[in-house]
Q: What sequence folds into this?
């Protein structure tokens, strides 16, 4: 019997490990086949909620936040790029890359969930930022991502200009913080089981099979 599982995927669109974790989860779901039917919801988490609209140079930001040397940062980027490639995603860490504010991206994702196109928009935003180096806080970048996701562009622009769903996103963010979630990706299955980090498909597959057996 197929088990329907609710999966809350808490993440940010400027988090490379979220791409890796999503790829691992999707591969695991393919492997378990008819055992599990997943209902995935992307939940908001801001890695840098106080980031100004113009963003910050990535190398500078990593050095300030984590104390990493340029050599450590380069090695980390190489490892992340390789892991992303394993799940079929292209990350381009070119010179001059920046970290940006993502609150408006989360507002648009909230709206996209209502419109039934949240997964498509999430993927479009990952691609815009990591593959093309675009600013996911720029209204035009967000509108273009909405179009790529099959959403109404003018409606997307209206959501962005109006500030709609800001309180909903803030409330959702508070909810996950109150559950002691301070890093992403964090995956919560059926409000009971938590998996943290950009896990590979093998780890997600083991977890899904165990959870499905418990649900049975």
A:
């Amino acid at each position: 019997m197929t088990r329907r599982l609710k999966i809350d995927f808490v993440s940010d669109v400027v988090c490379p490990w979220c791409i890796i974790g999503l790829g691992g989860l999707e591969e695991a779901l393919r492997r378990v086949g008819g055992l599990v039917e997943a209902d995935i919801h992307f939940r908001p988490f801001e890695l840098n909620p106080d980031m100004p609209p113009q963003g910050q140079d990535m190398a500078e930001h990593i050095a300030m936040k984590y104390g990493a040397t340029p050599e450590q940062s380069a090695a980390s980027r190489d490892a992340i790029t390789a892991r992303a490639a394993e799940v079929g995603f292209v990350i381009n860490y070119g010179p001059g890359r920046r970290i940006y504010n993502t609150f408006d991206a989360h507002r648009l994702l909230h709206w996209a969930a209502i419109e039934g196109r949240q997964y498509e928009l999430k993927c479009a935003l990952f691609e815009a930022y990591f593959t093309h180096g675009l600013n996911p806080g720029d209204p035009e970048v967000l509108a273009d991502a909405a179009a790529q996701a099959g959403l109404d562009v003018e409606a997307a622009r209206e959501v962005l200009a109006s500030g709609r769903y800001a309180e909903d996103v803030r409330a959702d963010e508070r909810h996950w913080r109150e559950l002691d979630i301070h890093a992403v990706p964090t995956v919560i299955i059926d409000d009971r089981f938590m998996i943290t980090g950009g896990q590979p498909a093998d780890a997600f597959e083991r977890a899904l099979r165990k959870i499905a057996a418990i649900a049975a």
Notes: The radius of gyration is 17 Å. DSSP finds nine helices and six strands in the chain. The longest helix spans residues 16-32. The mean pLDDT is 96.
